[in-house]
Amino acid sequence: MIELRHSSRGVRLQPAAGGVTRLLSLCLPYVVAAVRPLLCAAKPRTEALLSAPTLPPVAVLARHLLNELAEVEEPFILVLDDYQNVRGLPVHELLTELLTHPPHAMHLVL
Questions:
Q1: pTM for the complete prediction?
Q2: How many independent structural domains does the chain possess?
Q3: Would you tell me which of 66, 68, 76, 83 could form a disulfide with 7, CB atoms 3.0–4.6 Å apart?
Q4: Which domain holds residue 21?
Q5: CA separation for the pair 61, 7 (Å, rounded)
Q6: Which long-range contacts (CB under 8 A, 24 or more apart) does 94-98 make?
Q7: pLDDT of 82-107, one tens digit each?
């Protein structure tokens, strides 16, 4: 038996009707909700940006998410299940940012 010594958070990604912006606006809130218990901020900035009437560019969302995840000291595992179902470029761009500048405490599983 393997003993898991890290917190783990999982998100199942599924295709969404309504275009890639809708896909990003559906996927990212689940990621933020999954890691929210680990975040120091009372209301993460990323979460506030996602509730804005117009979704900011992916680079802005990624920067805020990365800044918030960088504050997490406890190692954690983020599982993005069914990533192969994602067809929207913004979601891939966001993941590229996460992989280019990975938070030190995060382990990503696809």
A1: 0.73
A2: 1
A3: 76
A4: 7-109
A5: 23
A6: 94/24, 94/28, 94/58, 94/61, 94/62, 94/65, 97/58, 97/59, 97/62, 97/63, 97/66, 98/62, 98/65, 98/66
A7: 777 777 788 888 889 889 989 998 88
